[in-house]
Design a protein that fits this description.
Blueprint lengths: L4 H26 L5 H20 L12 H24 L2 H8 L2 H12 L6 H18 L9 H22 L5 H21 L9 H25 L2 H8 L2 H13 L5 H31 L10
Helix pairs in contact: 1-3, 1-9, 1-10, 1-11, 2-3, 2-8, 2-9, 3-4, 3-7, 3-8, 4-7, 4-11, 4-12, 5-6, 5-7, 6-12, 10-12
């Protein structure tokens, strides 16, 4: 008996979430002996090797693009986001780093209004404001618990939001496989340059961690893409929140990390904001699908 598409989508999203969680754990383990600049290179290298067999199955003509300058800019910003995010995973408590990474959809909403001229209504702006409250609860600027490292994690989330907007722009002309291929082809040499300044060869089991970061990171992206093709964002987004207790548990058991109550409160606020933003996106997409035959869709409605 075949599985219902919604059940398949939920299963794929759960698998994607677990992959991203394992990737974060692998990065943290590797960062105990390697600089995160080097870990980012290996993540991209092994990610490219993992994705090539999938991409090269398609018609080569479908991989051509007229947007190489845009890919270059997108990948430069993406590398800075990745380096900042990897640094946060390697130096902050895992739960705190992952919690702040979940603030990215908040910045995507803002950037969509600024860069794509999308119309964002009051309810989504309220969700954005709620997300910022969650960020402030975690970061707590001006308090004795404030750590400058949280700003690095926040910068990664902002840049990730910029990348999401750029991918949306690129996808208007190019297929998903094209975007994935050119992203990795740019990312590998771009991440290799900073890695050279801190280079040392991984030793022993560290190879397992850097290979795992590449394979699970790429696996998570592929599964996430397929999940969103089958199911609705509003239904699938809450499943991705499972990553937070997973990495928090690993941080406590393996790295002796404790998570203060304010991080959990802030994370809960951010996740609630994300869930509502995803819900509104799904409502607007359904409205566009209903109205498409009779009127042209307005950007961001």
């Amino acid at each position: 008996m075949s599985m219902h598409p919604h059940a398949r989508a939920a299963g794929l999203m759960l698998a994607s979430t677990l992959c991203f969680g394992v990737m974060a754990i692998a990065i943290r383990l590797a960062s105990q002996t390697l600089n995160t600049l080097e870990i980012a290179f290996f993540r991209n290298l092994f990610g490219l090797l993992a994705v090539l067999p999938l991409v090269l199955r398609v018609d080569p003509a479908a991989l051509r693009t007229q947007q190489l300058p845009r890919y270059f800019i997108r990948c430069v910003i993406g590398i800075f986001s990745m380096l900042a995010g990897f640094w946060a995973i390697g130096h902050l408590p895992l739960a705190q780093a992952i919690s702040l990474s979940y603030s990215s959809p908040v910045f995507v909403t803002i950037l969509a209004a600024l860069m794509l001229n999308e119309k964002v209504h009051a309810r989504r702006w309220s969700a954005v404001a709620l997300g910022f409250v969650g960020v402030l609860v975690i970061v707590r600027p001006g308090s004795t618990e404030f750590s400058a490292g949280t700003l690095v994690a926040l910068a990664a989330a902002v840049l990730s939001g910029v990348v999401a907007i750029q991918i949306k722009q690129l996808s208007r002309a190019d297929a998903a496989n094209t975007i994935v291929l050119y992203t990795y082809l740019f990312w590998v040499p771009m991440s290799f340059v900073p890695a050279l300044f801190v280079w040392e060869w991984p030793q022993g089991i560290v190879w397992l961690w850097v290979i795992g970061a590449g394979l699970f990171g790429t696996g998570g992206q592929v599964l996430w893409t397929h999940a969103l093709k089958l199911g609705e964002v509003s239904a699938l987004t809450p499943i991705s929140f499972i990553q937070l207790p997973l990495v928090a548990l690993v941080g406590w058991v393996w790295f002796n990390e404790t998570v203060d109550v304010w991080t959990w409160v802030g994370a809960g606020i951010i996740l609630a904001s994300n869930a509502y933003i995803a819900h509104r996106e799904a409502v607007l997409l359904r409205r566009h699908a209903t109205n498409a035959p009779v009127e042209a869709a307005k950007p961001g409605e």
